[in-house]
Queue: 4 jobs
Job 1
Amino acid sequence: MTVATHTLTEQEHNSPGTRIPFDSIHEPGTYVCNWSGHLLRVPEDAISQGRSPLVDIRGRETLFTTKISEDPYMTVTKARLNAADHDVPVNF
């Protein structure tokens, strides 16, 4: 019996609409917290090599986010529209 597995490619991992764990965010962009609907803006400076993460959340459960744009500075209105395009509920 074989089990089908699917590993995200780099392209899939970075594309808008992809659901990833919070601690796996390695690309700048705008994300929505799946657990609360809050908006996360992740600028390039927040994930630069050799820098400490600006935010570090720890807990028993994996917290997932959904990337909705590669632009961390998009307007809130556009962020709401992009989240709706990916069926992600928002709280902002």
Job 2
Amino acid sequence: MTAKGKNHWLVKQEPEDYSWNDLVRDGKTAWTGVRNFQARNNLREMKPGDAVLFYHSGKEKSVVAIAEVARAAYPDPTADDESWIAVDMKPVKALPRAVSLADIRANAKLRDLLLVRQSRLSVMPVSKEDFDEIVKMSRAK
């Protein structure tokens, strides 16, 4: 957590299921369907205003944009069990250039990033330093 209380996160999504462009079109979405205990616990920690890296998984494997948590955790309406939760997210901006997983892995500053160490996790915390480094990488040519 930063001094201002804002946390940073990364969420992964198959673009064929729900892409960054879908979030931009919708203006806001409920982040539902998470059925991994660690990812659920991460969702539970999200607060409105937290910054989120939006990662396209599948073939793309790239961070493509920045979103923001719009609503804190609430029971996931797609789950039969109320222990599963959702948050609402809204788009902030697309990155100037997508940052691939290969580029992230090649950056020594990001070697401890959960995306590199635990690549299957769909919702994960990111340090402010790592968040800023990925955004910086998106501006490089």
Job 3
Amino acid sequence: MLARSGESKDNMPEGRVAVIDPVGAAARRFLAPLALAQFICSFAGSNMNVMINDISQDLNTDVKGVQLAITLFLLIMAILMIPCSKLTDRWGRKRCFLLGLVLYGIGALMSAISPNLGVLILGNSVFEGVGTAFLIPPVYILTTLTFSEMTGRAHAFGVISGLGGIGAAAGPLIGGFITTAISWRAAFIFQAAVVFTIVILSRRVIDPLPADPERPFDIVGAILSAVGLFFVVSGILLADTNPGLMAACFVVGVAFIAGFFFFIGHRERAGKEPLLSIGLFKNRTSNLGLVTQNAQWLILMGISFVVSVYLQTVRGYNAIQTGVIFTAATLGILFSSLAAGRLSKKYSQRTLIVWGFLVTLGGVGLLLWIVPSTSSSFAFVPGLLLIGLGLGVMLTPSVNVVQSAFPEAQQGEISGLSRSISNLGSSFGTAICGTILVAGLSTGAYAIALIVLAVVSVIGLVIARFLPPTLGLPEPAEEAVS
């Protein structure tokens, strides 16, 4: 494991190995499997968008069926991210990382041979979703424990978050190319191959802290939070078919979430360790950062789904044509995320997030203004490019804001909460936009879905304005939980 910049071997916590230069060769070897893991998980969330027609015809389903598989994958990630994050302390971070990779690989292979939608959901949504929930928290925990200096950490998060954004944006392009050239099933073989590569690369990753098998685990809290989030997202999916059942799902979901907060508060007051400490929600900076994370991933996955469905069902584009159009967003995210380290030296985290939302909002506006007035596929390019640039600029600062707000002892908790909030945003984006589109592609649903995403951009912009103006350094530990 890498040492923190500026620490000597004698002063390091037990279990760490001193390594210099957080951006040198050793750092690259450390970051490679972690960043690649974030890439493939984000890729899995968006690559199916361009396979809608192919999967629907092959498995005798429709857009709603594919939307269900995508949303369930993102939802399972979200509801299990916090419990799996807590298990990293009990089982060890590297062990959870490898377990997640194995489950993910099994799910990818199962999806590749699926004879019907049910098996596809089991492989893609369940196995890959659970696998992702196990492997993603260690990515951010290990990175935070390794890099304490702000610039070094910003660079590391820039690489990881950047590849995550690229994975989500390039998912349609890579998935479209594989689907057109070979088959949609080959895209899942590609995922399995990447997972195998990550396992090989992760051999040199050493857990900096020992596992604690005696660490208590809040099973009741895990169940309450998972059930609550499941019903809330299920309510969104039912909005276009059964408003009454939708309302019932929302009521049940909110009741379980309220019960979750009541339970963990009671457990903490009783001196027992809850699934999440109430103190995590008392850090104003972190709370604001979490909202921006949720909005960013909602927009990214929402745009991916809306444009993909519109191109395939309204314009009649095939998978590769749809994917090529998304190259603009991919290039935008790639360019701005790779510049994250340099930008963090010149501008505050708040400035980057604010400008990110402004640029993203401009991109959504261009999609609304230009696309309906022309049949040219190039009409999508300016808007998608701006959206990619905007999201790439702010993905890293939002992660950095949240992770840096807490001391090492709470990195397991906040990493799980952060990833859960982000993936919940992804599932909201697919569920909300998918529900709008399925309700009526021929009646202006494309414009309505984009307007919803524009509103989310405005909300994110307003929230970002409330971040501390000089945000840049981590808050002291005693303030992080005050």
Job 4
Amino acid sequence: MDRDWEEAVEGCLGHLATEKSHAVNTQLVNRATLETFAAWLEKTHPAVKPQDLSGEHLRGFLQAQRARRRLAPASMKLLVVALRHLTAHLGREGILKQDLRPALDLPRLDRSLPVTLSEAEVERLLAAPFPETPLGWRDRAMLEILYASGLRAGEIVGLRLENYLREEKLLRVIGKGNRERVVPIGEKAMAALDRWLAHGRPGLVRPRTGGEIFLGGHGRRLTTARVWQIVQELSDRAGLGKKIWPHLLRHSFATHLLSHGADLRAIQEMLGHASLATTQVYTHVDQARLKEAHRRFHPRA
């Protein structure tokens, strides 16, 4: 990569990591986009330096990526957001004199409603038999918490022993962007977690085991990929006959709370959403559920 562009990209990424506290995955996506952009410029416009950047260059890159990779609007949005960060950084540093925001309009996204499980399906999933073994106790505790607290897979593998505030019946969760929140944990989830911590986890501790609550058979923290596998295995055991993933339980957690009258802002806090607009999608899910019930059961529907 050209030295000028390397400095621009690294400066932008450094600012996002330190000042914006971007999550690791977000940092990786932005790095990949900006390095691809710099490589594209070097190939197609080798004389262009950061101070020469124009809307034409940005649009040309986006058009090339859309044509070559056939990207969906959601993927195009990731590219646009990364380029917006770069141009904002160049402006802050006084390198770029012109406003390039008009060249970086976000693509329109048709927002699909989250898929959820019914309450009966969740009960069936949690009622499935678990082996009376350390790993069986772990899996039950993990599944109970995923539904009881709406945690993401990455959040549950990052839970540490000191994050379990037992007396307060709370979990302290580090979410996206290193934002911290506290989430209530119900009695059934607490009982399953206490059993795992008292009778299952101690038997898996090894000399190099860290403070994570959930461990694999090797004594180290679980990966998010393994959590996905465990959830699907439990779905198969329950005979649900459908693909289940951790975020589906998070969506079900929020939807079921809303349908039982929970305040939307309380749900936002428990999910760790930065914006209420993100949480409001669950109101549409609940409306869709009510419409379907009316269609199926009203005599004149």
